[in-house]
Fold this protein.
Amino acid sequence: MAGPRAVRYLQQTSRQLSLASQAISVSRTELVPRIEKMDIQRKDVIVREKELRAELAKVIADNIVVPDNGIVLVERTEKSTHDFEFMGVIAMSVQGAKAIVMTSVNAGSPSLVLVQSADADLAKKLNEAIKEGLAKCEGGAGRYKGGGAKCRYMGKVEGKWGKDEAAVVKSAVEGGA
C-alpha cells in the first residue's frame, strides 16, 4: 500500500485509535495497558460471578421444602439466573426429593423448563405431562421445544408465559404426572 491509499488507511486507523481511547477515557498512549488491565478485571469478575451463582444456588436449594409427594416445583423469574446451568446446580443440590421441576420465566426470552429425577420413568412422565399440557395452552403444540433422556429433560417455551402455563406445570407436579 502506498500513496493516497496508505494515507487514507493511516487516517482511518488513527480515528479508530482515538475513538477507542475516548471510549475508555484514556490517552492513546495508555490504551493498550488499560485494555490489558480491563481484560484481567473482566476475567476476575467472571470467576467471582460463577462462585456467587454457585453459592446462591446452594442457598436456594437449602431453603426448598420437599412436599409429601416428593416432587419439588421451583419457579424463578430473575433475569440473572435465567439459564439451564444455574437451574441444574439447584436441582443437583436439593436433598430428599424424588423429582425437581423448575421453571424460569423471563420477559423477552423463551421460558425454560427443567425436569430432573433419579427415577427415569418419573422424569419422563413429568416431562410428557408438562409438554402435553402446554400444547393445550394458547399458542399450541409447537411452543415447547426440547428433550432429554433418562433422568433429565430440558425445554424452552416460546411466547408468553402466563397463568395457564404455570397452572399446567403445577398440576403435573401435584399430580405426580
